[in-house]
Amino acid sequence: MIDSPDIVAQDAPAQAVPQGAAVADVHTATASRNRHHQRWQELLHLNRDLVAQSNPLLVSGRLTKVTGLVMEAVGLRMAVGSTCWIELPNTRIEAEVVGFAGDRLFLMPENDVQGLVPGARVTPAEPMRAPVAPGQSQLPRRRSSDLARHLPVGEHLLGRVLDGAGRPLDQFGPLLESKSAPLQSRPINPLERAAIKEALDVGVRAINSLLTVGRGQRMGLFAGSGVGKSVLLGMMARYTSADVIVVGLIGERGREVKEFITDILGQEGLRRSVVVAAPADTSPLMRLQGAAYATTIAEYFRDQGKNVLLIMDSLTRYAMAQREIALAIGEPPATKGYPPSVFAKLPQLVERAGNGAEGGGSITAFYTVLTEGDDQQDPIADSARAILDGHIVLSRRLAEQGHYPAIDIEASISRAMNHLVSPQHFLQVQRFKHMYAHYQRNHDLISVGAYVKGSDPLLDQAIQLYPHMEHFLKQGMYESEVYTASMGKFSDLFPNEG
Ligand SMILES: Nc1ncnc2c1ncn2[C@@H]1O[C@H](COP(=O)(O)OP(=O)(O)OP(=O)(O)O)[C@@H](O)[C@H]1O
Ligand SMILES: [Mg+2]
Predict the structure, then answer these.
(1) What average pLDDT does the segment 69-89 reach?
(2) End position of a domain, from candidates 378, 399, 421
(3) DSSP state of 156
(4) Does residue 282 share a domain with residue 200?
(5) How far is CA 467 from CA 61, 206, 426, 461, in A?
(6) 425 CB contacts (<8 Å, ≥6 apart)?
(7) Which of 77, 161, 313, 362 could form a disulfide with 170 if both were Cys (CB 3.0 to 4.6 A apart)?
(8) Measured at the alpha carbon of residue 241, what is the angle toward residues 238 and 246, in degrees to the nearest 5?
(9) Do residues 289 and 278 touch, judged by C-beta distance below 8 A?
(10) What backbone torsions phi and psi does residue 376 show, to the nearest 5 degrees?
(11) H or E segment at 250?
């Protein structure tokens, strides 16, 4: 115990005494008061140190129900989005709070739930924060996004392959540095974002010239399965002029992760890349987290002033993971089985990419979107088209003809393009599309020989130009074409309109 200081001397009343004695008494009173203050100060300091050393209370709850993916726990008050441990005899399982109803918390496991028993102890992964001690400043984490889970970020991630929880999947050992960033970031003030002004060289001729992408633009790559999305993304990963490439492989086949890294990225590409892989066999929570983590890493590099290329394969699997979670905790499905929260999550993720403040770095992002059977009504494709700054549509018909990359020029658009290229080039692109479309519409007629030359001057011109246009659009998987060369070859298609 600490003795309380003597406070009797504090208010000694001043009495009328002779002059000389009065001066001496005043000195004595001041000295005693100073001593008194000092003792109080010492006591307060001691108490402050004791409070700072105290252990935070460890609270725990119990597991009451497990159905499918969702678990319920009682006896705990934890924020949605926070992490907890479920204790088992030999191990423990990490879970996240995804919702609550009354006193019951809904939890979702990060991995497998094998071996859970009724009544298992549930403890928060982060202990309660100690109160701020006097003299100490408030923790900088003030907003709800700051309280979100923190995962490793930094230069040391370059060349590494990680899972959705920031654990290395490659053979290069543990991550040693300790810098971390929250999985949910604060939204950027839209007025502070730099505009998309500078064209980005993606190394693919058809995109560079006909669908010019700007630094900080967010594009969708729409296609059915097996049409060449991954190969095209790989080409862009290898040839785009970016400082850092962040690849999020979300919900795709596990086999493809290795293929993407060894065959598509290669040693050279991997050196400037960070790969976050959460394939289809991981929990839906891990898949959501993987996409958020890849975005967090991209944001980190952008905030260092770097130009980042973010590749996410696929946005549809991300939406499906959110659907799994939302349906499991009882959210009603709205559009084609997708609950409303899915449509809220998509823009939240996509809006994190893009340009930072003026003069800072950028995140140019490509998200793949699965459209089965050219289903334009697919709610995810619909929603993605509305929130992205353009879409590149891949066509199965072209792929079947061996026309790679199978970009459907007529159906694709880059919404920032008119700010990036000259008005003359923009007009030529419209002309190219017009002629290409005109030829396609009359293709059957031409191929059966039913078209009589001279009856449609535009079609005559299109027939003459078509082989050149087709040759221009095709590009080998391991062939790159820089921006200036793409633009040069494009204007060579229209020699008379210099
Ligand atoms: N540029 C190209 N040149 C030659 N062949 C290609 C090209 N692009 C794609 N292909 C062929 O198409 C196949 C499928 O491509 P890819 O794996 O990229 O499709 P995907 O759309 O990602 O499919 P999934 O939806 O199943 O992930 C490849 O294995 C390859 O044979
Ligand atoms: Mg693929």
Answers:
(1) 89
(2) 421
(3) G
(4) yes
(5) 70, 15, 22, 11
(6) 209, 487, 490, 491
(7) 161
(8) 60
(9) yes
(10) -75, -15
(11) strand 244-250
CA pair distance 480, 427, nearest whole angstrom? 25
The count of domains in the chain is 3
Q: What pairs with residue 84 in β-bridges?
A: 95, 124
Q: Which ligand is the nearest neighbour of the Cα of 221?
A: 1
* 30 located within any domain: no
Contact call for residues 487 and 424 (beta carbons, < 8 A): no
Decide: 223 in ligand 1 pocket, CB within 6 A: yes
Q: Which domain holds residue 74?
A: 61-124
Distance CA 476, CA 479 (A): 5
**pLDDT attached to residue 315:** 94
Answer yes or no: do 382 and 440 share one domain. Answer: no
Ligand 2 centroid, distance to 277 Cα (angstroms): 13
Residue 370 and residue 225 in contact, taking contact as beta carbons nearer than 8 Å: yes
- Span 178-193, mean pLDDT? 83
Asked if omega into 457 is within 30° of 0 (cis), the reply is no
Do 266 and 349 fall within a single domain? yes
Instruction: Look at residue 13 and tell me if it is in a domain.
Output: no
295 and 394 belong to one structural domain: yes
Is residue 49 assigned to a domain? no
> Which of 225, 230, 255, 473 best tests ligand 1's pocket when mutated (most atoms within 8 Å of CB)?
230
Residue 232, classified by CB atoms within 10 Å of its CB into exposed (0-12), middle (13-18) or buried (19+), is: buried
pLDDT at 1 over 60: no
Same-domain status, 208 and 102: no
**Spatial distance between the Cα atoms of 341 and 383, rounded to a whole number of angstroms:** 12
- Ligand 2 centroid, distance to 237 Cα (angstroms): 14
- Among the bound ligands, name the one nearest to the CA of residue 223: 1
Domain identity same for 410 and 439 = no
- Residue 135, domain member (yes or no): no
Q: In this predicted structure, what is the pLDDT of residue 453? A: 80
Q: What is the CATH number of the domain that holds 80?
A: 2.40.10.170
Over the stretch 331-346, which tens digit does the pLDDT of each residue have? Answer: 898 888 899 999 999 9
- pLDDT tens digits, 351-361: 999 998 888 89
213 shares a domain with 112 = no
Same-domain check for residues 435 and 406: no
Q: Residue 140 — φ and ψ, nearest 5°?
A: -70, -15
Q: Which of 90, 124, 158 is the last residue of a domain?
A: 124
CATH number, domain of 455, equals: 1.20.1270.330
